[in-house]
Amino acid sequence: MGFVSTTYQIIKKLEDNERTKIINVILKLRGSVLTAYIFPRWRRLPDNYVKHFGHPDKTIKPGSSEMAGFIVAVDRDIYDFSNLETVWEALDSISSTHEDLQFLYQELTKEMDTTPERLSAPLENIEAKIDELWEKGIENKFVREECLRDIESKVYRDGLIEVQFNPHRKSIVSKARVEKRSRGKELCPYCIQEPGREDYFWNNYVISANPYPYYDHHIVIVNSEHVAQYIDEEALKVMAEFVLSSPHYFSVYNGPPGTSILSHMHFQAGIYTFPVEKAKKEILNEKDNLRVSRLLDFPTRGIVVEEEIDKMRSALCPEGRRP
Ligand SMILES: [Zn+2]
User: Fold this and answer.
1) What distance in angstroms lies between residue 165's CA and the mean position of ligand 1's atoms?
2) How many whole angstroms from 190 Cα to the centroid of ligand 1?
3) 2 alpha carbon – ligand 1 mean position (Å)
4) Distance 73 CA to ligand 1 centre (A)
5) What tens digit of pLDDT does each residue of 32-63 get?
6) What per-residue confidence (pLDDT) applies to 323?
7) How far is the CA of 170 from the centre of ligand 1 (A)?
8) Alpha helices in the chain (DSSP H)
């Protein structure tokens, strides 16, 4: 057991529970610490937005970034409605409660198995290739670069919540569109070769730029097969290998039903520092270079798994491929 298997064991327990089964995951290398943020919740849409606007698309639709304190609003009125109180209430209400998570906290205080694990895929640095893919996407106008322009933002509680207004990103994930996709009425955007898209094949996945970015270098990492969205130990291993191979990028997984393209398994990645990275944590367990904590005084509940990777890296690369 190590970082990947510990993270997976946590996700599996959450997926088996009605009150915690919608899961968002962010993986990131922070200095020499490989970090996983796992956000469990029990519902998709926040009541206070739905009540206020009375429209299924007039709300924030929390995915990994929102659960991590970063709200992207594509409509002016949603941006104006979003402040410390409304965002906190929204995230707090969809998130599983500490009570819901009590069973997991108890499990996590038991003895941890920290036998080193091996990530077997080649770990060459792929950052230069991904950067190039991103720049080509902008050149070809495949990436709507305007999505990263004219952004307004406001920050609350010393950066624990950040709200952005991104007017150019408008309406790509409407309720109608998600339903159309789920009925198979729209071609899978990952399976068709969209004009201008550059693909990079890596580790049984296809990496390409996100045409409607809300992070710098926002890319998608798509399974080479058209299989429904899922996460398992192997997939988590790929996410970990991705951040170890491109250390400035994070990788995220949005679990069903909270993502717009559910029919084709994928992760996203980009370069960004999330508000949750500043949040308070309480350690639940610690052994060797592995540590498991829970978030405190943050609008969402979350479990954080961290591993110092210097020792891990030597276990990863027994042939000394990486200096
Ligand atoms: Zn597909």
Assistant:
1) 30
2) 5
3) 32
4) 27
5) 999 999 999 999 899 999 999 998 788 898 99
6) 33
7) 23
8) 3-15, 47-53, 64-67, 76-81, 84-94, 102-108, 127-139, 175-182, 233-245, 309-316
**How far is residue 195 from each of residues 140, 190, 198, 267, measured CA to CA in Å?**
9, 12, 9, 21
Residue 314, pLDDT > 50, answer no
Count CB-CB contacts under 10 A for residue 257.
12
Ligand 1 centre to CA of 266 (Å) is: 10
Minimum mean pLDDT among 21-25, 148-152, 215-219, 272-276: which range?
Answer: 148-152
Question: Which helix (H) or strand (E) element contains residue 33?
Answer: strand 33-41
Cα(284) to centroid(ligand 1), Å:
39
Please list, residue by residue across 21-49, b when 16 or more beta carbons sit within 10 angstroms of its beta carbon and e when fewer do.
bbbbbbbbbeeeebbbbbbbbbeebbebb
Domain ranges of the chain: 3-316
Query: Measured in angstroms, how far is the CA atom of residue 98 from the centroid of ligand 1?
Result: 37
Segment 106-125 mean pLDDT: 78
